[in-house]
Amino acid sequence: xxxxxxxxxxxxxxxxxxxxxxxxxxxxxxxxxxxxxxxxxxxxxxxxxxxxxxxxxxxxxxxxxxxxxxxxxxxxxxxxxxxxxxxxxxxxxxxxxx
Length: 98
What we know:
The chain is of the alpha+beta class. The chain has three helices and four strands, in the order E-H-E-E-H-H-E. The chain has helices at 16-32, 63-71, 76-85, and strands spanning 2-10, 38-43, 54-60, 86-95.
C-alpha cells in the first residue's frame, strides 16, 4: 500500500468560511477520485509545535493508483484553493508494510 501525506502551513489564520472551503474540496476529492482507498485530513491539534497547520493522508493500492489520483480532474479545485491559502505545501509518498 502507498500512503500519501501532505502537510500545509497557512499564509494566515483561516476564517471559518475558508476552513469550510478547504474541508469541502478535500472531502469531494476523496469521494470522487476512484483509486483512493482511505483519506483523512484535519487541522493540527497544537499538542506539539509541528510546523504544519493542516494534514492530509490518502492510501492507495499502488503507485499507479496514486498517479491516477494525482491526475484526476477533481484535484483541480483543491490545488487552486490550497495555492491561494497555503504558504507551504510538503508532500511525500511511502510504502506501508502489510
